Amino acid sequence: MRKIHVIGIGAGDPDHLTLQAVKALRSTDVFFILDKGEVKSDLVRLRRDILDAHLPDGAYRLVEARDPERDRAAGGAGYSPAVGDWRSARADIYERLIAEELGEDESGAFLVWGDPSLYDSTLGILEEILDRGAVPFDYDVVPGISSVSALVARHRTGLNRVARPVQITTGRRLAEGFPEGVDDVVVMLDAHQIFQKYADQDIDIYWGAYIGTPDEILASGPLAETAPRIAELRSEARERKGWIMDTYLLRRRPRG
C-alpha cells in the first residue's frame, strides 16, 4: 500500500528538523510540493534547501503542482465556506498526485512548515481523500518545531508563566476580543495587525517574521511603543519580498 509521510520541517532553518524527520526524508521516494507562484517562490526554494541539506547526494524525486487560489476577500459567514472550497480543491490535487506519481509500494511526503498539527490543513485534507475511497494509502505524522516554539526561543522567553495558561489563536479571533482568563496569547495568521487594537493596554509583545530563515526579523517591547515599529517593519518586508509570514506573543503585565 502507498505510504504518506507528513513531515514537519520547522520554521525554515534546515537545522530545525528532528532526527525523526531526517529519517522520514531518507525513507521517502517522492516529495510533493505545492507552488504558490512567483511571489512565494522562496518557500519552494527553502524546501529544496532543506532536502539538499539532509539528502546531499540529490537522490530524491520532487513533484510540484500549483496551489489553488483561495478567496481571501471572503469574510464573516462566507469565511468558512471559502476555506472549505479551497481545502477541497487542494484535496483534488493531492489525490491526483498520490494516484499518478506514487507506485503501490512507494512512499511520498508532504513537507509542512512548522508542525503539521498546528494551524495546518494537510491532515484534514488527507482524511478527506481517504473518505472519498478512490485512492487508498496509509500515512504517519512527524512533528516539527513550530514557528511558535521558534519565536519564543529566539526571544529567550517562555510561552507561559508559572501556573498560568497560554492560548494560541488567530488574528481573526483576536479581533473579537482579548481571550478571557488568559494573559499570554500567541497569535498566528494576523494579516491585519490586530495587535494594534490593544496598544493602550499594559501588554508586551514578542514578534517575529520569516522566523528560522535568513530574512528573519524580530522585535519586542511594550506594545504601545513597539506596535508602530512592527507596522513599519512589516510594510518594508512585504514591499521587499511580496509576502510575509509572522507570529507574535502578547503578554499582559500583572495587574496591581
From TrEMBL:
GO term, biological process aspect, one: cobalamin biosynthetic process
Keywords: Cobalamin biosynthesis, Methyltransferase, S-adenosyl-L-methionine, Transferase
Domain Tetrapyrrole methylase, first and last residues per copy: 3-225
Superkingdom of source: Bacteria
E.C. number(s) listed in UniProt: 2.1.1.152
Any one GO molecular function term: precorrin-6A synthase (deacetylating) activity
Pathway: Cofactor biosynthesis; adenosylcobalamin biosynthesis
Pfam families: TP_methylase
Protein name as catalogued: Precorrin-6A synthase (Deacetylating)
Biological source species: Streptomyces sporangiiformans
Recorded name of the encoding gene: cobF
